[in-house]
Every structure is written in C-alpha cells, then in structure tokens.
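A further point concerns the way the authors explain their paired sequence and structure data. Nothing conveys this as quickly as seeing an actual entry. An entry of this sort, consisting of the sequence and the corresponding backbone structure tokens, reads as follows:
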Amino acid sequence: MTLWTAPNILTFIRILATIPMFIITYDEKYYLIAFFVYILVSLTDLLDGYIARKYNLVSDFGKFMDQIADKILINALFIAFLEMHKVSGWFVAIIIVRDIFISGLRMFLANKNVVVAADKWGKLKTFSQTILIASLYLTPLFSFLDTVNLVLVILTTFFSLFSGYNYLVKNLVYLKGE
C-alpha cells in the first residue's frame, strides 16, 4: 500500500496546520478565524478515518500517524493557551505526560509487532480536548464559557488519565514478558 493515500494526506495536513494554528492562537482578535480553521482541521481527523475504513485504506502507518497528528495539534494549542494563561500548567502537564507515555508504550509495543489502536476512551479524550479548545477560542465572545471550560478541563483530565490507565492495563500482557 502506498504512503500517499487520501487518509494519510489528510493526516499530514493536520500536522502542517499546527504551525499557523499555533501562531494565530496568540492573538484574541483572530480567535474566531482560529476557531473555524480549528474546526476544519479537526474534521480532517474524522474524515481520514472514514475514508480509510470505507475504501479499505487502513494501514498501521495511518493508525499511528493519525494519533501523532492529534497529539501534535492539540498539545501545541494547549501550550499556546498555557502561555496566554487560558489553561493551567498542571492540566497541560497531565495532557503532555500522558501523551508521551502512551506514545512510548505504542512504540515499545510496535517493536513487538503489536499495534495499539485508539479505543473509545482515547477517542473520548481526544473529543473532550477538541471541544475544550473550541470553547477556549469562543470564550472571548461568550464569557459564560469560562465555567464551561472549567468543567471541560475536569472532564478532559479524567478522560486523559483514565484512557492512559486503560491502555496500560489492556497491554500489560505484552509488557510482562520483559
């Protein structure tokens, strides 16, 4: 199977979009534009998976890179929001440490020919992160979102920690042979 399939191209677009998204996030006057661009970029995550499954273009490379693309975009934006004091350092630390841990686990297991695909908890984590980022972009327009953001931070923290724990427990059988 070729590397340059439609799903993989969409994944690379998501990675490349991180740079302009990161830059425009630093100026609240561009938040509405950033919000719409973020929604479009986030939709590539849904679209690449849909196309891959529908046209039998699912690959181990695509499964792995799709998750990396999510982490690159989301973590970069959370770092930007952290620098702008829109989210707390403890929250961003949890997100990044969990992501690095799970990525390390995936790489380790890949050496054992085990591919760790996203499960429902990982997808809930990514969904809650996506909603939180969208809400952070809209907060300057709708102040009531400050309260919503607090709830989303708590939910995202829970989903991040629980999904990380879940990935570890589900794959302990492969780790015990070490």
